[in-house]
Write a structure and sequence with these properties.
This protein is of the alpha+beta class and 292 residues long. The chain is built from 7 helices and 12 strands.
Length: 292
């Protein structure tokens, strides 16, 4: 079982302005709020560059001509981007590396397998020093969970509280409607979305008891789709928090910390402890509460 992704490093005047890892085969760089790597509109178009991983190679595509994207002093529209290439956008230099993370079957531990390289060796010593400082700081940050859903939740057996078909039919309808309500509230509260996944699965179990297997399959499909969407959202908010901290956009950091804590509410995980500490630090240093 393997997971792949891209790591994007953006520098300006020999200083690192963004160092972001994205799980998946595609990265969108720009100033738009939906971008995986986001910088100010004074530097990038809403959608500036798309990078995608295809058969071990990274392909780049310039999505806007203003500001222009260049490679080696020539206009760049699309093509393979190697580990030694640096795409230029105004004062910015964009470099990318791909990676693959494989789970070792016997132990369950993770092992990093580089496809190209995790980081490009940079020309300027000052940039290398900046990255070294960043890595040292990052070592104190615990690894976030791969999913907002606990492994125990995935393994837990979900059963219908009613075992008589007539009663199960009523329970299934109630659970289905409750799941729909929870899903509708999920954009405002990730916890509601995560509760909806379980409620859809309970509804599916009740539909099975009632003999309505088509409805049961539909409920499980809705649970699976919602779970996948929540996991993608969890990763996006992790990336946004990292980027907001690196850019010292602490107002955004507060928002992202609150959202991530909602995802992990009720779990025991070192990353949640780190989020609690970060929230307290933001409150003390950025206002809203005085230190005692």
């Amino acid at each position: 079982m393997a997971e792949q992704g891209l790591r994007v490093l953006i520098t300006r005047d020999q200083e690192v302005v963004a160092d972001v890892e994205v799980i998946g085969a595609s990265v969108l760089i720009g100033s738009g709020g939906h971008c995986d790597v986001r910088l100010g509109p004074d530097l990038l178009a809403i959608e500036q560059i798309r990078l995608r991983l295809d058969d071990g190679q990274v392909w780049g595509e310039a999505l806007s001509r203003l500001p222009p994207v260049t490679l080696g002093g020539r206009a760049f529209s699309s093509g393979v981007v190697t580990q030694t290439d640096a795409l230029s956008v105004g004062p910015l230099f964009v470099q990318v590396a791909s990676w693959q993370e494989q789970v070792v079957q016997k132990t369950g531990h993770k092992r990093f397998i580089p496809l190209l390289a995790l980081l490009v060796l940079l020309t300027f010593a000052s940039v290398s020093a900046a990255i070294s400082r960043k890595v040292v700081k990052a070592s104190h940050l615990p690894d976030p969970p791969a999913s907002p859903f606990a492994e125990s939740d995935a393994k837990a057996q979900v059963s219908c509280p009613e075992q008589v078909p007539a009663s199960a039919t009523v329970a299934a309808g109630d659970m289905w409607r409750e799941a729909l309500d929870q899903r509708e509230r999920s954009p405002f509260s990730p916890r509601n979305g995560m509760d909806a996944v379980r409620t859809f699965n309970v509804a599916a179990s009740c539909f099975d008891v009632a003999g309505n297997h088509d409805a049961a399959e539909e409920a499980r499909t809705q649970a699976s789709l919602l779970r996948a969407g929540l996991e993608r959202s969890f990763h996006v908010h992790r990336v946004r928090l990292d980027h907001s901290i690196s850019q010292k956009d602490f107002a955004l950091s507060k928002v992202e910390v609150a959202i991530l804590k909602s995802f992990l509410a009720g779990r025991e995980h070192p990353y949640l402890t780190w989020l609690d500490d970060m929230e307290r630090w933001l409150e003390v240093t950025q206002g809203n509460r005085k230190s005692s």
